Amino acid sequence: RSSPNSSFVWIKYMAFVLSLADVQKARSIAERALRTINIREEDEKMNIWVAYFNLENEYGRPPEDAVKKLFQRALQYCDPKKLHLLLQGMYERTKQHMLAEELLEKMVKKFKKSCKVWLCCLQCFLKQGKDGVTVVSRALSSLPPNKRIKFISQAAIQEFKYGVPDRGRSMLEGLLREHPKRTDLWSIYLDQEIRLGDVEVTQAVFERATCLSLPPKKMKFLFKKYLEYEKSIGNEDMVEYVKRKALEYVEGPAGFNMPFL
């Protein structure tokens, strides 16, 4: 009662009642929570709907129909894109791949200009070991131009994590050919190579990045990242090398007045 807007408290209450095998009472608690939580607390209400989906997914008769019926109700009150993404996440977590793919197909039609929805679709495909090329192609033909860089860079991360790293590299290389001064793209590329753990490949990307003619602030960012990387793997010779390389840049005309690392 002291926290009527706290979804955490309501969900704990639901979980306690479920531990006593009282499914109907858990449903009534979810309904009370939805009535009680202030209408302005959208995220808190959304958490209750998700907990309710999970309940019906476990105990509904049959679960698939119970969840879909509840989802249609929730759509009247919640942000539709957020709700679709949350339901899709539940399907994926519970390995209901057919339902997840059915929902994704609806989502990419309903929200075809949403980068987040297309990335969700790509991740689902890659995690199942499927080729993501078609998804990427469809996304690029649907998304507005101002979302293209964001989508490709995030899609590349997903290829590094769940798909084919070389495809991720190809995507980032393409972006960097068009936007070589975007340090955010270099940072994404470096982070993925660092995560994969091939030292030579990672150092080669750092070398390319730190040989660019970028504004001093951007070069400082890249040199600092390079130095932190070499320190993290304990390569003292390379730490000294990076310091020398940074100092050469600072003492050159491009690095005038740039404070050292």
UniProtKB/TrEMBL annotation:
UniProt entry tagged with the keyword rRNA processing: yes
Native organism: Anthurium amnicola
Key words, A-Z: Nucleus, Repeat, rRNA processing, Signal
Location in or out of the cell: Nucleus, Nucleolus
Limits of the Pre-mRNA-splicing factor Syf1/CRNKL1-like C-terminal HAT-repeats domain: 5-251
Protein name as annotated: Protein RRP5
Domain of life: Eukaryota
InterPro entries in the cross-refs: HAT, HAT_Syf1_CNRKL1_C, Rrp5, TPR-like_helical_dom_sf
